[in-house]
Amino acid sequence: MKFRLTKLKHWVFRILRRLPMPVIAILIGLAAGFAVWGVLDQIQSRAVKKIFGEELQARLDLGSRESLLRFNQYLTNYAATTRLLANHRRLAQYLEPLFWFPEQEVDPILYEGFRPQWLPDFFGRNALLAPSHVALVDTRGQLREIYQAGSDPLPAELLKDTQQWLGDDEEVRPLLIRLDNQPYLLVSDRVEDNGGYNMGRLMVLVPINADFLAASNGAVPSDRSVVALIDPDAQRILASDEPWQLVPGTLVEDWTSNYLVTRQPLPAYAGSNWNMLFATFVPQRSIKRMSRHTVYFERRQRLVAALVFIGVFTLVIYLVSARLNKVLVRMSSFSQRALGIEHPAFSRGGNQLLLLEEWIQQFTQLVLHAREEMRRKHESEMRATEALKAAIMEASLDAIVTLNRDGRMIDYNPTAEQMLGFEPVQALGEPFAERFIAADVVERFQDMLSESAGHRLGEHQTHVRGELHAQRSDGLIFPIELSIVPIDLDEQRFYTLYIHDITKRKQAEREIKSLARFASESPNPILRVNEQGLIVYANAASEPLLAYWETTPQGQLPPLWRETLAEAVHEGQPREREADFGSHIFSLLFVPIQDLGYVNVYARDITAVRRAEQESRQHQAELVHVCRLSTMGEVATGMAHELNQPLAAIVNYAKGASRRLQGGIGETDALVAAMSQISSQAERAGEIIRRLRALVGKQPPIRSRADLNHLVREVCGFVEFETERLAVSIELDLAEGEIPVDVDLVQIEQVLLNLVRNALDALSEQPSETRRLAIATRVSDSTAWVSVADNGPGIPSSRMARLFDPFFTTKETGMGMGLPISQTILDNHEGRIWAESSPGQGACFFISLPVWDARETGTGEALSIPAPADQGPADRGPIREQASG
Ligand code: ADP
């Protein structure tokens, strides 16, 4: 059963899902409308019936009362008419002559079918039903004259004792009586003759039958209700105005199924022998018909109301569903955007309410899911944070201790254990200040704690910092830096103490302080200048320097030196400069400390050094000169020989010219030619002497721009005599164009001359035909080289190392100063000199010099550049010894 119900529910749900809302709206509208209509119909029909019944009863009561009134009125009309008749002149006149003997038994005069003269037709005139009998009765109650309208005689019961029904009072007397089981209206009134004599009574008898009742009810339509007289004792109908419907003599209860009966007592009439009820019979049929009409009418009204209700309900649901549709579409896009879900049912169509419900379920689930996710994430984050906190606590290099508001320890990290030297657990609950703060600063600690207590969380500055002394468990007192952070947890105040052991820092500070004394104690000036050139520190030794600069500590550096300062700061490299104040020379090293924005200036008084250098240079120059003189001593021999040639030529030309002049054969042209030869030879001799003087003369070293190729050529000129003597021709392989160098001409020529002469010395030991001497020059961007190569005996490796030592010589007349002097000269020229040799195959000497343009940057870094070996004597063997100065 349960299974079936579930299945049914499933199917209903499926159908509902597929039906669009408007259709469901109409179905629900119809169902609801009909349900409402059905319930209302039941309730209202009953209510209407009840109201209708009550109303009907009231109306019936009213109607029957009206009938009774009319009936009474009708009786009253009879009484009035009877009174008129009794007092009518015509009756009085008729009675005038009559005299009825009281004891006389007489048969009454019967007028059957016609009216006697004393009886005018007043009943007809008053719209009353004609009575069945009108009679005159004498004072003793004997009937004297009887008018009988029909064939029926007076009822026997009346005849038996007439007097008892009439009475004797003067008033007219209507009476409802039963005679021979028939109801009658009997009205009597006193009659008198013209003379006022009491003649007896006028009696009017009207049978209360259907006609009577109909006439008494007058205009009331007979199909509505039937009036009747009822015997209350026997519950029988005595008379009705429609006897064919309500048959007199039948029991009332026989009719109650078809009629609604209203009974009313009739007014009591004195002397009446019968108690009767006036009853109104309304046919149930007509009531039902009326009730049905009303119910139908009501039902129609309700149906209209129900239809209107259905219409409105359907319209409302339709509008709601249309609105829902829109909402669904929006929600669909919303859920797509916000949650990334797409509801497939939206595109399918169907019952929007169920779709909405589904969507809401899905949405709620997603939200719940998301909330659960967030909670889980939050928890894992919390765990991670806790773990991180724990890790931080564990790994912290500072001791971290948590105190409660009374200053007792409730938590700490391992560093605290080590730093303060207590056993785990031992310290929990201990008053921190007493245990671990040095006695002399406990008060200060308490002050910090209460200062921290005054701080509120969320304030800009929440922690209190200070330097104190802590005391380890073993009594060791050491400096600490303490930071107290107040924490409010669950309305309770706690303090977290971050304790940093600053023993090492203090030590370092002391060391730094002592280090700082280095500067102040230094005999050399040490200054610290900021980037703006302000001297922020100057030691005592700086006084003379500051005096030369005409400034003071905290004063400004002179503008010239501010430039150097800016350069050092800009390049981030130390810069060294010399400051020459005439009497004193300082070497200044500007070292930028970029992190701090300062420049340290280390100065050195180098006056003495510079003087020594100057003296040394002077000595050196003198030495060079002496050396040169010695070289020149040998050169001069050659030079003198060379001088002989022009001098001999001059002598020859002069002798020839004078001979011609003396012989008188001299032509002017020949003489002029001889003279010009003389002067050119003299110039040549002068040139030789000038060169000699230049080399021999003592002059201070002067640097000037020169062409290295030119110097080489000049040196070759100096040794022409010797080369000729040794039958050696110098092979020149010079670089193209000029090789500009910044040199002292004489000194570099001295070097070259020395190298060439050494080579010639070496060659002199060789057979004359194999002698070769090659000089080459090369140049790169920044360096120029000269190589002097010979194919002499070469230099054994044992000599190589000592080649540039002073006084090292293998020659008998040699001084051993040529190469050391050359080295000094090249050192002064930022150049180099070195030798290579393959023993037995010759030697090659190299010099390198910075090229003029590269003078600023080149500092003789020519080592990596290969020597111009190719221009030297060809085969120098595989092994090369190298010596360098
Ligand atoms: P000196 O020429 O007065 O001896 P140097 O200083 O000029 O002094 O030379 C030192 C030594 O170097 C010479 O005595 C010689 O032994 C050696 N030497 C110099 N040049 C050569 C060369 N081209 N070949 C072989 N030996 C040389």
Automatic annotation (TrEMBL):
Keyword Methyltransferase: no
Organism: Thiorhodovibrio winogradskyi
Span of domain Histidine kinase: 638-853
Name recorded for this polypeptide: histidine kinase
Domain PAC, first and last residues per copy: 464-514
InterPro entries: HATPase_C_sf, HATPase_dom, His_kinase_dom, HisK_dim/P_dom, HisK_dim/P_sf, PAS, PAS-assoc_C, PAS-like_dom_sf
Pfam families documented for this protein: HATPase_c, HisKA, PAS_9
SMART domains xref list: HATPase_c, HisKA, PAS
UniProt-listed PROSITE patterns: HIS_KIN, PAC, PAS
Gene designation per UniProt: fixL
Example of a GO MF term: protein histidine kinase activity
Transmembrane segment boundaries: 21-40, 303-321
Domain PAS span(s) in chain numbering: 385-456
Listed EC numbers: 2.7.13.3
